[in-house]
């Protein structure tokens, strides 16, 4: 069942996100305008989608809807609809009433040793024969509770997506895809540093091979300069990509911590709650007018912060809310609607397979799946959007696939060893 489940998850991730990535790249390109509109540019190339926050919100909305439909359908199939929607989608697990349930159990049945609530001592313990019975479980610090951890990963996920879109404006898509393949490094390091997890030696070999492949790809891309289709990779774009990878590492390592601490919480329940939290975080930013030049706010701060701004005026101007701007853009650029719907719906479908994978196989296995998916995405991008790669870049791709091969070989060896042990 484990191999079958992994096969279904891998196939689902590949199928959904290969198409999703094409929609994502199309959204980063200009769209022609059908009318005279403030978004319209003077050239003929068209206009880019004005708000990455709106794209992120559409993705979160589609993900929460996909998770909700999946959980309700699963509960209906298993005959568990009587539990109620709040419990099915995991909202009740966020704030369990452990204390009241514990008190009710003691009142009704005693403490399991013929003792009732009245016989429990002042310190929460009492003696029944030679055994001590505890009434209250040990309190968990708030930062380690399920709501706090889910809010944390939701915030990370919400921040990471706009940074990724911003990075894509300063680097080419193949560089973005290969750079995201480096996600193994922050996931591995942050699991070790933050949560003290240990991994087998071959995992570090895989990470090293992927790192060498990514570095080779970057160096060979720089040597080609402006001749490479898709533009130069600026230092600012690579910096944004690094920040995006670090946030992704925090997200995946924290998700591993949630599943190890709260094993009854399912992947689709986490998907629903994280998407719901992401919508709550994004909604104010979409509905409120934001400063046109955020750095102009520095001029209103006390010294020495105000001296750090290079803007010629201290006047702060506000743009129209991103929600209204995006709707207006879709009206004047109707060709942007199909890739937006494809981006949101395919992303929601792919997230179902992602959370199923991370729940049952862990974040490193998930990242290995997404790494291969991203490499195939890059190759598909080369074919569809006519990006060109140098021979050195193809060599880097081969090194990365070599690391993936090492991981696949070790997985197969481990499965054969387990099968032999079970046979004995």
TrEMBL record:
The keyword Aminoacyl-tRNA synthetase does not apply. This is UDP-galactose transporter homolog 1. It is a multi-pass membrane protein. InterPro entries: EmrE-like, SCL35B1-4/HUT1. Belongs to the nucleotide-sugar transporter family. SLC35B subfamily. The chain crosses the membrane at residues 52-73, 146-165, 204-221, 271-290, 336-354, 366-385, 391-410. Keywords: Endoplasmic reticulum, Membrane, Sugar transport, Transmembrane, Transmembrane helix, Transport. Its main location: endoplasmic reticulum. One of its GO terms (cellular component) is Golgi membrane. It holds the Pfam family UAA. GO terms for molecular function: UDP-galactose transmembrane transporter activity; UDP-glucose transmembrane transporter activity. It is found in: Endoplasmic reticulum membrane. The keyword NAD does not apply. Residues 102-128 are annotated as: Disordered.
């Amino acid at each position: 069942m484990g191999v079958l489940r992994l096969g279904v998850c891998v196939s689902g991730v590949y199928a959904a996100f290969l198409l999703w990535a094409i929609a994502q790249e199309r959204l980063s390109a200009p769209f022609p305008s059908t009318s005279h509109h403030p978004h319209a540019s003077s050239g003929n190339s068209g206009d880019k989608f004005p708000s990455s926050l709106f794209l992120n919100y559409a993705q979160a909305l589609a993900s929460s809807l996909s998770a909700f439909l999946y959980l309700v359908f699963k509960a209906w199939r298993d005959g568990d609809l009587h539990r109620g929607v709040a419990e099915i989608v995991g909202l009740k697990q966020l704030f369990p009433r452990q204390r009241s349930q514990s008190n009710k159990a003691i009142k009704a049945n005693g403490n399991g040793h013929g003792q009732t609530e009245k016989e429990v001592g002042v310190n929460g313990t009492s003696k029944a024969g030679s055994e001590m019975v505890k009434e209250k479980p040990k309190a968990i610090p708030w930062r380690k509770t399920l709501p706090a951890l889910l809010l944390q990963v939701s915030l990370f996920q919400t921040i990471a997506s706009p940074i990724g879109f911003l990075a894509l404006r300063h680097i080419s898509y193949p560089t973005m895809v290969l750079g995201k393949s480096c996600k193994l490094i922050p996931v591995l390091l942050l699991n070790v540093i933050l949560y003290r997890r240990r991994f087998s030696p071959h995992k570090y070999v895989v990470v090293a091979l992927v790192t060498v492949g990514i570095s080779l790809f970057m160096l060979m891309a720089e040597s080609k300069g402006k001749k490479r289709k898709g533009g130069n990779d600026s230092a600012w774009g690579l910096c944004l990509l690094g920040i995006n990878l670090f946030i992704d590492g925090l997200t995946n390592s924290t998700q591993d911590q949630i599943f190890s601490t709260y094993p009854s919480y399912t992947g689709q329940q986490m998907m629903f709650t994280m998407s719901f939290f992401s919508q709550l975080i994004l909604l104010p930013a979409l509905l409120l007018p934001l400063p046109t030049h955020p750095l102009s706010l520095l001029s209103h701060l006390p010294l020495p912060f105000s001296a750090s701004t290079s803007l010629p005026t201290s006047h702060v101007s506000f743009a129209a809310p991103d929600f209204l701007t995006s709707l207006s853009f879709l009206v004047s650029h109707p060709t942007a609607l199909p890739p937006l719907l494809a981006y949101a719906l395919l992303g929601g479908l792919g997230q179902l397979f992602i959370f199923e994978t991370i729940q049952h196989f862990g974040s490193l296995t998930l990242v290995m799946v997404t790494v291969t998916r991203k490499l195939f995405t890059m190759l598909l991008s080369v074919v569809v959007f006519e990006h060109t790669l140098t021979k050195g870049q193809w060599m880097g791709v081969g090194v990365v696939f070599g690391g993936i091969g090492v991981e696949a070989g070790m997985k197969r060896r481990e499965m054969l060893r387990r099968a032999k042990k079970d046979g004995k």
